[in-house]
Amino acid sequence: MEAVVLGGSSLTHMALRLAKALEVEYVKVETRKFPDGEKYVRILGDVEDRIAIVVQSMYHRPDEYLLEYFLIVDTLKDLGAKKVIGVVPYFAYARQDQRFKPGEALSLKTVTKLIENAGTDELYTVDVHRHRVEEAEFPRITRMPVHNVTAMPELAKYAIRAYDLKDPIVIGPDAEAEHWARVAAEAIGADYDYLEKKRISDREVEVRPKRLDVRGRDVLIVDDIISTGGTMVKAIDVVRREGARRVIAACTHPVLVEGALARVLEAGAEDVIATDTIPSPISRVSVVPILAKSIKERLRS
Length: 301
Description:
With 301 residues, this protein is α/β, with parallel strands linked by helices. 31% of the residues lie in helices and 27% in strands.
């Protein structure tokens, strides 16, 4: 069965690169807005009896990009596509995977069901927010296969090459990010740790690496998202006070709102790197190769 790649308006350039990596045809999608703000979508190619791979990230304007994705997928099924594979590098609404307060919407569940009901047969995403939301979580809310690939090894390898890190240690900014730190560290054969809060008294809390000493070492701090930069700024402050020689900050998804990039650099990071799941000035690592590899492996099986 022949495959084609289509790109929504959020990541057309990535769709083109993915089609090239997969060595398949790229089919254009025309999108525009009517005067009242409604979205117009038109598929400009033949998709009948083909596997359609739709690339659409959901950053900054997630509601608009989600609706556009639904229109593309439903249209593909109407036009006879045999299978639709969604590639959503930045998966919006994953933060709310459980109720923290009574009555809250479980947005991860709702959005995943909408993606499936639109006609998506299989879904790929990258470092979905909160490390517990992985393949083990999705089967509880959808019958659609979901593949969550990680960019952490590629970020770590890039950092080693670009900054010639000496005796590196990879740090997660909190306990939740230990997962990312471990994956990144394993890729480059480095130590890893995460920052832990220790209560000294009823009024004093100390934040420091849980196990390892960072003094005199090059530190790579990794997290899935840099949004406002607050978490990363605190982490940089801690490792610098602990004596780190150099600090590089890295994330998969550079949301970067409210002057986040400047804040992180001002806090003492030598540089900040990210992937291209969200286009940004620091998107130096592409997720296309890891997505292409994962998709190829499953298409062949």
